[in-house]
Each structure stands twice: as C-alpha cells, then as structure tokens.
Amino acid sequence: MRILLMEDDPVLGEIITDYLNGYYSVDHAYDSKEAQEMLDAQKYDLLIFDVNVPGISGIELIGELRSFNDTTPAIIITAYDDTEHLRKSFDAGAHDYIKKPFELEELRLRIDKSKVLFHIEQEEKMTLGEDLVYYPSRRMVRKNGKEILLKPKEHEILSYFVAHPHRLISTEELVQNIWEFDQMPSDATLRSYIRNLREIIGSEKIKTQRGAGYRYE
Fold first, then answer.
1. CA 78, 83, 85: angle at the middle one, nearest 5?
2. Which residues contact 162 (CB under 8 A, 6 or more apart)?
C-alpha cells in the first residue's frame, strides 16, 4: 500500500513517516507543490493531507484532485476542531478526518479501515537487512530511504534468490528459471546482473561458490 503524506511540520512529518513505513510505503511532501509533483509521478493508494501547508491547503488540493476525477481515498489531519473545517473536508472529497494531536496507532487503524472500505491490497514487502526493503510488485528496493528501481532481470534474479535462501543455486538452475530457452545469457551477462545486485543489496548477500553457483544469505 503506497501512501502520500503532506505535512509541513518536518518533525511531525518524519515521526509519522518513520512509523507508517513499518507497515506501508510512505512518501512525504512538505507542501502542496511538492505533493502535486509526486502525484504526477506516482500512483498512490491513499492520501493523508494536513490542512495548513504552504501553497494551497490540503482541503483545496483534494478538491482540485476530485475535479480531475482522481478518486484516491483521502484522510485530512488538522489542528482545527470546528465543524466548519470538518464539513469543508468532506465536501472537498475526503473520506476521513483526524484531529491533532493524535496517537500514531489511531492513524494506522484509520488507514487499515480505509484499506477495507476501498478494497486496497497490502503491498508485499520483504526486509532484506537494516534499512533495506524489497518491494517485488514494484520491482523496487528501498535502501537507506532511497528508492532503487531494478531492471526486469535483476528483479527476477533477486526474487529467485529470496525464494531459495541459504542453499547453493547453480548457474544452470538460475538461468533455466529466469530466461527463455532461446534467450540464454552469456556468462558475462549473468555476472553483470549479479554484480549490479550486489551493489544494490550488498555483496555479503550473494556469495559466489566458484565453479558451482551462488548462495543467497
């Protein structure tokens, strides 16, 4: 599940992002301009917008998105406690509203409720190490907070490795399960893919047993 959080308070934004990244994939925008740029570049399953941010407000941005037929579910977070802002949020197209201060667990429960309400599937992710997470459905590795898009064959090789950890995988087995018969790679091509993966996930993750194959640890 991919979430866009728009929160201009850097401390609160980092706290929320760090917490939610333990359960979902979260991008953090500090203002409406940055949020719009992220929305143009990426499809999100859920939006969580603060009201008072630089540029147009979170409520206005939701209204603008709805005018372009963007139906992405949206939660408003705000320090306002009056019914007028509540009404404006729902009128703009938000489906939920949470008042500051709030417990992080409450926000997560509201997100999980949104998943059920809008039939949002949980994105599969695999923790490969400290600050190293693999998202197979997006062909992406998040390393130290940076997203790295894998090439198709890098993704297939990594998927095969993580599905068969701690055992020797021969070169022949790897090639036969990744490539079509008439598209078999050269030894140099395979080594290039392995080298690239090592640079991304760490050389200690993929061990070479000379003359026999590879072992994913």
1. 45
2. 126, 128, 134, 216
| Structural domain for 107, as ranges | 2-118
Per the structure, how many domains does the chain have?
2
Total residues found in the chain within this entry? 217
CA atoms of 89 and 60, how far apart (whole Å): 9
Token duo for residue 65:
């998105």
Strands 46-50, 206-209: parallel, antiparallel or unpaired by DSSP? Answer: unpaired
Threshold 0.85, pTM exceeds: no
pLDDT per residue as tens digits for the range 63-121: 999 999 999 999 999 999 889 999 999 999 999 999 999 999 999 999 999 988 998 87
Q: With H, G, I as helix, E, B as strand and everything else as coil, classify residue 68.
A: coil
Question: Are residues 99 and 191 located together in one domain of the fold?
Answer: no
Residue pair 128/162 in contact (Cβ under 8 Å)? The answer is: yes
Same domain, 207 and 161: yes
- Cβ within 8 Å of residue 143, ≥6 positions away: 131, 132, 200, 201
Express each pLDDT in 2-26 by its tens digit: 899 999 999 999 999 999 988 888 9
Do 109 and 70 share a structural domain? yes
Say yes or no: 71 and 134 in one domain: no
